[in-house]
Amino acid sequence: MDNDTRHLYFSFFNEVGIIAQLSRAAMEARLPDGLTLPHFSVVNHLTRVRDGQTPLTLARAFQVPKTTMTHTLAGLLEHGLVEMRPNPEDGRSKTVWLTDQGRQFREDAIRSIDPDIADLKEAIPADRVADLLPLLSEIRAFMDAYRD
Question: Which of 1, 29, 30, 38 makes the best surface tag, with the fewest CB within 10 Å?
């Protein structure tokens, strides 16, 4: 690979990483006490993809050890955002389901960053962000398939 191509792609991922760090800090600052971005991310995943997944499936989706996911789920259970039910396909495991409180938590968390989004919209118009989404989705899909 030539240096220009390497630098281009490295710069792209470097910018994405910095954006991820900054957006994580902004979101976590607005979450209720005791809840972190991993908690929000699991709730968001269950809403976006589907709930009723096993902890192991979630751990694989987030590429974290099962013990890490178990700890994250314990926090969500403690706050009443998810509930565990027996797995109908395998009685030895459980499945994770969002509660109404969990769905409301997600909506409230997204709404809580409205001031940040308004400031960003002032600096970068929504149409420019909309233009980026198809490319970012394509890269995410490639990276998601590539990890497997």
Answer: 1
